[in-house]
């Protein structure tokens, strides 16, 4: 037997049936025309935003679209957050499609093509520069199109976010400009007459350690002051990044955002005079939407092989790569998993839940204890609202597409 990850605290049952919004999972599946189906519960997102506002008064909240770009969710976010962060021109198209491009928006990411930069210029979004050469191309395109570019410089900091799943910073990096070269670039930007918006640091992702995030934010604010001093200019904005993680696996504890908020308040109260009028931004993806998502699949076959019981479902890693353990994890562990028709019931048997792909990698839950599920019953994987469908190889094996719905 292996443990499964902890359920987000937000979900309830009605007579043993999992509720999503105020509907049963089975009812939603029927209405949507079947499984596989991703359900995103807006009340969970709203609750996370409430928690953010309480912990970080005065700090702007941006949504990192790449965590989940589902149109109805994006439109819902537009009413909750202060801005967006984009990682591609395709995400800009999505934002424009839902009319969310009126909010402050920045565009980061290495390898922006001239077309990407021109699209960002035309939409008047802040381009977070990833290199000096990118600035040269942007400057040329701005002159060609007679536009005044809005630019910030993404810094490759001399530190990383400790304890984060993905560590960026402190090393050579394709992301951002090495911190000691930033003041020179900032001067060139300002001297060109461009609209210099400030500085951006994104030091890591999926951290559950408030201490590590506090330390990284302190270091970022200090670095911003140092760069401002060296460049002789106060940054209008400093984007402190994010990296807030969520619990996925057995033993994971939720991030203490209140502690992070308290410490940031103190850091900002003591900030350098050059940052006095600076607007501070946090850009979050996973923490806002990750726990709002549930992936619903149906059991197609129950089989026993050499004493081991398999639930074979109509879903799989083609929709939810991370739950299979193949999205950057070193060690495969189980996401939270349930039988929605028996939510909260005592577990009855040890089962291994697999998808329908012809590969042993397609494992959704390994040797977990669940209430008994028969062919036709639903199996749910939780905490799939970020880096789910769009971070999975959907074309692999040409299986049926997954549906998505916001409730
Ligand atoms: C991916 C990304 C984010 C969002 O990260 P989360 O871990 O989902 O919060 C924010 N900023 C940048 C620059 C990113 O690349």
TrEMBL record:
Q: Which UniProt keywords apply?
A: Pyridoxal phosphate
Judging by the UniProt lineage, the source's domain of life is Bacteria
Gene3D superfamilies reported in the protein's UniProt record: Alanine racemase, Lyase, Ornithine Decarboxylase, Chain A, domain 1
- Occurrences of domain Orn/DAP/Arg decarboxylase 2 C-terminal (ranges): 38-385
Q: Which cofactor does it need?
A: pyridoxal 5'-phosphate
Q: Does the keyword Ligase apply?
A: no
Tell me yes or no: is rRNA-binding among this UniProt entry's keywords: no
Which InterPro entries does the annotation name? Ala_racemase/Decarboxylase_C, DCO2ase_PEP1, De-COase2_C, De-COase2_CS, De-COase2_N, Orn/DAP/Arg_de-COase, Orn_de-COase, PLP-binding_barrel
Q: Where are the transmembrane segments?
A: none
All copies of the Orn/DAP/Arg decarboxylase 2 N-terminal domain together span 45-289
Its family remark reads: Belongs to the Orn/Lys/Arg decarboxylase class-II family.
Q: What is this protein called?
A: Pyridoxal-dependent decarboxylase, exosortase A system-associated
């Amino acid at each position: 037997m292996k443990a499964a990850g902890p359920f987000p605290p937000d979900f309830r049952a009605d007579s043993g049936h999992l509720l999503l919004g105020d509907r049963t999972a089975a009812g939603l599946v029927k209405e949507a025309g079947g499984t596989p189906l991703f359900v995103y519960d807006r009340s969970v997102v709203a609750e996370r935003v409430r928690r953010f506002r309480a912990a970080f008064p005065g700090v702007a909240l941006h949504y990192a679209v790449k965590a989940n770009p589902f149109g109805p969710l994006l439109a819902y976010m537009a009413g909750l957050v202060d801005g967006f962060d984009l990682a591609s021109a395709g995400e800009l198209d999505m934002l424009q499609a839902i009319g969310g491009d009126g909010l402050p928006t920045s565009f980061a990411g290495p390898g922006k093509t001239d077309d990407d930069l021109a699209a960002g210029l035309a939409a008047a979004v802040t381009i977070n520069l990833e290199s000096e050469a990118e600035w040269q191309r942007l400057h040329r395109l701005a002159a060609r199109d007679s536009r005044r570019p809005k630019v910030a410089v993404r810094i490759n900091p001399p530190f990383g976010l400790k304890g984060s799943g993905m560590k960026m910073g402190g090393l050579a990096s394709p992301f951002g400009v090495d911190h000691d070269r930033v003041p020179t670039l900032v001067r060139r930007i300002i001297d060109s007459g461009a609209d210099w918006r400030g500085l951006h640091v994104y030091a890591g992702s999926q951290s559950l350690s408030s201490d590590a995030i506090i330390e990284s934010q302190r270091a970022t604010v200090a670095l911003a002051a140092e760069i401002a001093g060296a460049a002789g200019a106060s940054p209008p904005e400093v984007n402190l990044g994010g990296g807030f993680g969520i619990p996925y696996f057995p033993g994971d504890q939720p991030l203490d955002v209140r502690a992070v908020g308290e410490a940031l308040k103190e850091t900002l109260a003591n900030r350098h005079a050059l940052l006095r009028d600076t607007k501070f931004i946090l850009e979050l993806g996973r923490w806002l939407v990750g726990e709002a998502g549930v992936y619903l699949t149906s059991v197609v076959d129950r089989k026993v092989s050499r004493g081991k019981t398999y639930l074979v479902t109509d879903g799989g890693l083609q929709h939810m790569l991370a739950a299979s353990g193949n999205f950057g994890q070193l060690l495969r562990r189980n996401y939270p998993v349930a039988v929605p028709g028996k939510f909260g019931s005592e577990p009855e048997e040890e089962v291994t839940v697999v998808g329908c792909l012809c590969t042993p990698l397609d494992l959704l839950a390994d040797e977990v204890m669940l209430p008994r599920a028969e062919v036709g019953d639903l199996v749910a994987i939780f905490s799939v609202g970020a880096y789910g469908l769009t971070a999975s190889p959907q074309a692999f094996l040409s299986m049926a597409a997954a549906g998505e719905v916001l409730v």
